[in-house]
């Protein structure tokens, strides 16, 4: 057994106070996102964990890349027939989370996922490198396959088939937009007295702001 009880650190890089935050969470998310980006930490600032409730009743989380965010929501792309796609089809309640270790920050977003328009999916797919486009076609995401060679051989065949041709977006691949219902911001503080601010959407499209105990 590995004893991790002594793994601890003091968080002292920033603070999150009510008198310095905007009235809506997207503005604060935008500020934090670009502060982390400007800080120049390692890794991909747009990497997020997407949690769904699977068809087997268990929650499952995986890291994907956020590709766009606005007042309407948070967009990522995937195979609609993947395990996560099937889970979202059955239960669109999802959770997104970001952990930016360099700035000692975390954001947790509860929301409803739905497919983006085909135009949005087409435009993003067209912007991808050809290798990524072919990868989306060749991979039946989450399905059992016999070997790595199986994927690579199928990719080589597709590369030959589409040489010099445009590569269309497969119908089973596209975007999801997650409309936020609740957004929680966590800023690490000293002595485990962390700052936690929660925004909850209201029926009049305003946001209720509350401080949570650490």
Description:
Helix content is 26%, strand content 33%. The chain is built from 5 helices and 9 strands. Helix 4 (130-138) crosses helix 5 (148-161). The relative contact order is 0.19.
Strand content bin: 25-35%
**Whole-number mean pLDDT:** 92
Radius of gyration: 20 Å
Alpha-carbon distance between the two ends: 29 Å
Structural class: alpha+beta
- Low-pLDDT residue intervals, each spanning 5 or more residues: none
Principal-axis shape equals globular
Subunit organisation of the chains: single chain
**Helical coverage, percent range:** 25-40%
Major beta-sheet overview: 9 strands, antiparallel
Q: Can you write the helix and strand succession as a string?
A: HEEEEHEEHHHEEE
The number of distinct helices, counting runs of at least 4 residues, comes to 5
Number of strands: 9
Please give the structural blueprint.
Elements: H1 25-39, E1 47-53, E2 59-65, E3 68-70, E4 73-79, H2 83-90, E5 93-100, E6 105-115, H3 118-127, H4 130-138, H5 148-161, E7 173-187, E8 195-201, E9 207-212
Antiparallel strand pairs: 1-2, 1-5, 3-4, 4-7, 5-6, 6-7, 7-8, 8-9
Helix pairs in contact: 4-5
Provide a compact summary of the structure.
Its cofactor is FMN. The protein is an alpha+beta fold and about 210 residues long. The chain is built from 5 helices and 9 strands; from the N terminus they run αββββαββαααβββ.
């Amino acid at each position: 057994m590995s004893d991790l009880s002594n793994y601890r650190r003091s968080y002292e890089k920033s603070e999150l106070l009510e008198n310095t935050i905007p009235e809506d969470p997207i503005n604060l998310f935008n500020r934090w996102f670009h502060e982390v980006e400007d800080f120049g930490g390692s890794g991909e600032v747009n990497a997020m964990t997407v949690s769904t409730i699977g068809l087997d009743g268990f929650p499952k989380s995986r890291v994907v890349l956020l590709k766009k965010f606005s007042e309407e929501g948070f967009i990522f792309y995937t195979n609609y027939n993947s395990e996560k796609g099937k889970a979202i089809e059955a239960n669109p309640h999802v959770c997104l989370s970001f952990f930016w270790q360099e700035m000692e920050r975390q954001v947790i977003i509860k929301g409803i996922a739905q497919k983006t328009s085909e135009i949005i999916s087409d435009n993003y797919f067209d912007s991808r490198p050809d290798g990524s486009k072919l990868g989306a076609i060749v991979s039946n995401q989450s399905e059992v396959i016999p070997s790595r060679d199986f994927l690579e051989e199928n990719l080589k065949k597709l590369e030959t088939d589409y040489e010099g041709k445009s590569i269309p977006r497969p119908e089973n691949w596209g975007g999801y937009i997650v409309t936020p219902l609740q957004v929680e911001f966590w800023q690490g503080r000293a002595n485990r007295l962390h700052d936690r601010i929660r925004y909850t959407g209201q029926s009049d499209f305003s946001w209720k702001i509350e401080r949570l105990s650490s």
